[in-house]
From TrEMBL:
PROSITE patterns: ABC_TM1 (PS50928). The chain crosses the membrane at residues 41-63, 75-96, 204-224. Pfam families: BPD_transp_1. The keyword Amino-acid biosynthesis does not apply. Gene3D superfamilies: MetI-like. This is Amino acid ABC transporter permease.
Length: 238
């Protein structure tokens, strides 16, 4: 991921002693927004998409009648949910090179976040599938559907509605968690904030500005979540 060249502009007002805090806040706004648009949001979206695919696979493994398959999925979920995300990031970025596997910062972050989302979202999807009445399965079998077809055509669409709120919350949390990627050299919004703060020495101002941008992003996502939930409720009502 390329660096943004707006950083000197963002800190020049403070660096030459002629600017005010207000000028610094205005000049650093676009570099931070650029960091969100080009770093934070793509990182969150790509990780969440991959994590959802992984979560569906793990959820189905957890529901498998094969004890070995179910046990592997259960162990994976236990490890992911029982260890800090920061540790997972460090294991992938700093730990894997010790066994000959070296990854760049961005792939490392995407893998770590995807694995983390997969562990948490798997339990959400599993619970959503289990919430569908067993009669739905029986009705599908009655009209000649296979288990796979019943799952894809009958069960998963109903489970999707149930899982929207918790999965939306998972995505919102992921957007905030992407700030941890700055610790493995990924240039996203918080990394931009760290650079600007280091050059300007206005740590409080810059970090509060970054926090406000995170807050606004999460407010937008929460509003979108509410709209989706209302539309799903209206669809079910009909």
């Amino acid at each position: 991921m390329t660096e943004w060249h707006l950083l000197p502009t963002a800190v020049s007002a403070s660096a030459d002693g002629a600017g005010t805090n207000w000028e610094l806040a205005l000049s650093s706004l676009w570099p931070l927004i650029s960091g969100a648009i080009m770093g934070t949001i793509p990182l969150a979206l790509s990780s969440f998409a991959l994590g959802l695919v992984l979560a569906l696979v793990v959820a189905l493994m957890r529901l498998s009648r094969n004890r070995i398959v179910s046990g592997i999925a259960r162990a994976y979920v236990s490890v992911i949910r029982g260890t800090p995300l920061l540790v997972q990031l460090f294991v992938i970025f700093y730990g894997l090179p010790s066994i000959g596997v070296k990854l760049d910062p961005w792939p490392s972050a995407i893998i770590a976040f995807s694995l983390n989302v997969g562990g948490y979202a798997a339990e959400v999807i599993r619970a959503a599938i289990l919430s569908v009445p067993k009669g739905q399965w029986e009705a599908a079998y009655t009209i000649g559907m296979s288990r796979t077809r019943a799952l894809s055509r009958i069960i998963l669409p109903q489970a999707a509605r149930v899982s929207v709120p918790p999965l939306s919350n998972t995505f919102i949390s992921l957007v905030k968690d992407t700030s941890l990627a700055s610790l493995i050299l990924v240039t996203e919004m918080f990394k931009q904030a760290q650079k600007i703060a280091a050059f300007s020495s206005e740590f409080m101002l810059v970090y509060i500005e970054a926090a406000l941008i995170y807050w606004i992003i999460c407010l937008v996502l929460s509003s979108g979540q509410s709209v989706i939930e209302k539309r799903l409720d209206r669809y079910v009502a009909h």
